[in-house]
Structures are given as C-alpha cells and as structure tokens.
Amino acid sequence: MEEFEKNINEFDIFTIQILVKNIMMDELILGYFFGKKNENLEYSFFNFPASLSKKMPDLKYNPYLIYKEKISEIFNDILPDNPEILDNSKKIMDYVSFQFKKIGGSEKFSKRLTYLIERDEKDEVNMEILGLFENWVEKKELQLNIQTFTSDEFSKLMIDSIDMGNKAEKVKDFAELRKFPEFYPLIDPIHGVTIDRFVIGMPLKCTILSYPDQETEKKVKEEYKEFLDEKEGFLKPIDGIIVSKEILPGKKKETYILVKVRLMEGVVAYSIILKALRLVRPKQTDESLLPPPETEVDPIPKGTERWRVKRRKKETTVMTTLKERARFKFTDFVLLLVILGGSIALIALLLDLFSNR
Q1: Which helix (H) or strand (E) holds 147?
Q2: Exposed / middle / buried, residue 18 (Cβ in 10 Å: 0-12, 13-18, 19+)
Q3: Which residues contact 246 (CB under 8 A, 6 or more apart)?
Q4: What is the pLDDT of residue 285?
Q5: Cβ-based neighbours of 111, under 8 Å, separated by 6 or more
Q6: Among candidates 48, 37, 45, which has minimal Cα distance to 81?
Q7: Distance of CA 84 to the CA centre of its chain
C-alpha cells in the first residue's frame, strides 16, 4: 500500500500545453488545458497556418503562463492580415466542445487526466489527447508539456510574475491574500472580453481554486449548494460580484489585475488575472453595463475594424468616380441629341425648298 502511495504525484492544479500538427491540411493547433485536480477543466485552442510555425512558442522552454500569453499575442498580431484564423479557431473550439459532450463532459475528461498525471503516465496522456482530435484529422503529430502545481505554488507563480514596484506595500505580504478564497475566471478566447471591460458590481463567472480554511469552505459550499457536485464535493462555476480591481504592472509588457469578488456576505475571493486574457462574457441582461471597448488594448477588434474601414474607403472613392463619369456621359448624350435634332430639322427644311422648285 505504501509503495502504491509513492507512485502518486501530489498536486492541486495541472496544465497541459499542446501543439497538434495537422500534416494533411498544413495547419497548427496550439492550445492548453488548465485544470484543478478531479474538477473543472478550462481550455483554449487556436488554429494557425503551418507557414507560421517559426513564430510559435516552444512548448519545452515556455512555462504555462508565458506560453498562454505568447499564443494570444501572436493571434492578435497576425489577425488583421489573416482574418480566416478567427473562424478556424472558433471551429476547433466548437469541435473540442462537441467531443467533450460525447464522452460525458470536460469534467470527466479532467478526472481521467488527473488519474494519469498522478501516476506519471505521460504516454497515456498523449494517447488520450490524440484520441480527442481523432475525428478532426487522420495524420497528425502531437507535442505536450505537462506541469503540476499545488494551489500555493500556482498563486505564488502568478505573484512572482508581477512587478510589484510601488504596489509592494499592498501585496508583498502573500499571507494577506491567503486569508481569502482564490478563484480563477472562466476563459473564452474567441468571443470573450478582457477584464478591463468589467465594472464594479458586475458578475464574473469563476471557479473556486482553494479556501483559506475549512470553515470558509463549508460556508461557501452551503451558500452555493445548488452548484455543488455532491458526489465529488466541488463547486461548479459560479458568479462572483466584482468588488475591486487593482492594476499590477508585469515585469515585461504584460499587465495583471488583482480582482476581488464577493461570494456571499462576509466572504471575498481574489484572483490575479492577466489583462489580455479573454473571459466569458456576462449574461445578456448585464451586457449594457459593459463600457465601450478600448481599441488600444484590444487588438483583435482594432485589427478587424482597420481592415474593414480601409475597404469601405476604397469602395467610396470608386463609387464617386463612377457617379461623376456617369453624370458627364449623360450631359454629353443630351447635347448630342440637341445637335442631331437640329441637323435633322435643317435637312428637312432643305428638302422642302428643293421639292417646291
């Protein structure tokens, strides 16, 4: 029994970075799974032309947080010149969602991955993910990078990636944040909106990662008992009400936001969210609260808008030229009729004079 226990890896969170090379279609599928042990599974996938392979981040040398950020940056940068990748990425996301429905949901898949990762069965994990894409393409190559963390390790990883600067006095004491439950926002890389589009008082769809103590866990699960999976004992995604947002500049160009949400009276949860991350939109009834999109920090709408405006200007110039040409041609036509009409009248008069002689 003791020998069996030694074969189990202890972790709370796992991430899997994925690269699928579609040999038949010359396309690359890049994405990742983010999961809590035996519980919820977040995932995002992007479809790129194989010609851009040199721009893609290397799975082996890019940790999960950096890998995720680089994929989003590449997607945003090339979208204006390759608008088809938006539709192709949506198709691959729809495909993965459909595959999960066929096998009983992403949570079931997460439990299977948890079991295999616990026992360090990397080849089996590889086979599971290959099976997930079995109906998408026949000939494919798969690369994986699996990472595991405890809740404390993952939280500290995010804290360490932030440039504290003058914020140090507020967040340097990690123990202060650990007094709150920790949550992770639900992601929608295609239709989602960034955290700066959410305002105080708006609901944010989130998954609870950890609790500071058993008493708080019991209170929250009692409050959200209709979202509780009684068999497994975890909460399904819930809505937390945003009570504060604080900018935390990153060490490079990235910016993080320290977000706190109210779960219930007297209980607040926190998360440190990358500003560029696209989150599940609020319900339609709350959409009116969204401020206008900031095109300077939201390159996808900016790129699409720039492409369309350029196209409209070109069409407007052509139409103006055609209208002016049409106007001149019509004037010339009228003048021609007048000249011809006069000529015909003169000829008729001459014929009449000769006939009278």
Answers
A1: strand 140-149
A2: buried
A3: 167, 170, 257, 258, 259
A4: 54
A5: 38
A6: 48
A7: 16
Q: Which residue has the tokens 């066929």?
A: 102
**Under 8 Å CB-to-CB from 147, ≥6 apart: which residues?**
14, 15, 16, 17, 63, 64
**Block residue for tokens 């992770």:** 184
**165 contacts 210 by C-beta, under 8 angstroms:** no
Short-list 273, 300, 274, 322, CA closest to 87: 300
Distance separating alpha carbons of residues 167 and 298, to the nearest angstrom: 25
Please report the pLDDT score of residue 321 as a whole number: 44
pLDDT of amino acid 234:
80
Only one residue has tokens 């004037």, namely 331
For the chain, which ranges sit under pLDDT 50?
1-6, 166-168, 170-172, 295-340, 345-351, 353-355, 357
Structure confidence at residue 347 (pLDDT): 45
Close Cβ partners of 52 (under 8 Å, ≥ 6 residues apart): 28, 74, 78
Q: Quick check: pTM over 0.90? A: no
Residue type, 193: V
Q: What is the end-to-end Cα distance of the chain in Å, rounded?
A: 136
Give the residue among 271, 241, 259 at the shortest CA–CA distance from 181. Answer: 271
Angle at 354 between CA 349 and CA 357, to 5 degrees: 130
Taking alpha carbons only, the member of 14, 217, 7, 254 closest to residue 114 is 14
Give me 257's structure tokens. 């936001």
Q: Is the dihedral of CA 95, 99, 105, 109 positive or negative?
A: negative
